[in-house]
Every structure is written in C-alpha cells, then in structure tokens.
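Service request form, structural biology core

Requester: graduate student, group of Dr. S.
Request type: structure prediction, single chain
Budget code: on file
Notes: please return the result as structure tokens.

Sequence provided:
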Amino acid sequence: MAILDQDVVDLNLGWLVTARDLSRNDPQKAAIVLGIDEARMALLSHLTLQELLTIARSGILLLRPRFRPEFWIDLIADCRRPSPVTRLQALVLAIEEAGER
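Core staff response, request fulfilled:
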C-alpha cells in the first residue's frame, strides 16, 4: 500500500474510532465537535474495530472540513498566536451546525 493510501486509512480510522467512542460516551459532544447526527451515532456506536477498519480502507477520505473557507483563513492566520476568539468562533459555528440537523 502506498504511503498516501496508508495515511488516508490512518486518518479515517482515527476519525471513526473517535466518532464511535464519542457516540457511545458523550453523544452531545459528538454532535457538536464532530457534527454527527443521532442516526449516524446509533450506527457508529455498535461497530467493532474490525468493521471500522474495513470502512477506513474504503480508499477515500471519509471526513471533510466543517467550516467555511473564511474561517480556515482566519484560523491559519491565528495559528501563531492562540486566540480564544477563534476557539469561541469555532464552537459557535459547530453549535449552529449541530442545530441545523
């Protein structure tokens, strides 16, 4: 397997395991932080590690950035100086997105 392909599998698996564990242990946080709706949480929470690995090996990146490009530009510009305002903005956007579902 090419290095890039393995990187995609690793990213997918890390996200899937995190999503499954949050869905099981803290559904509200899963909804806000990862943008997972209740139906997907119910499905994810019952998957085994082997099933998650099978999904992770799909060959495509399973996660995508949740925020508008303008937010990412601000976040990148602020990365050299940690900003509570940026963190708060991210939280507000995540909550708004979760409320739209």
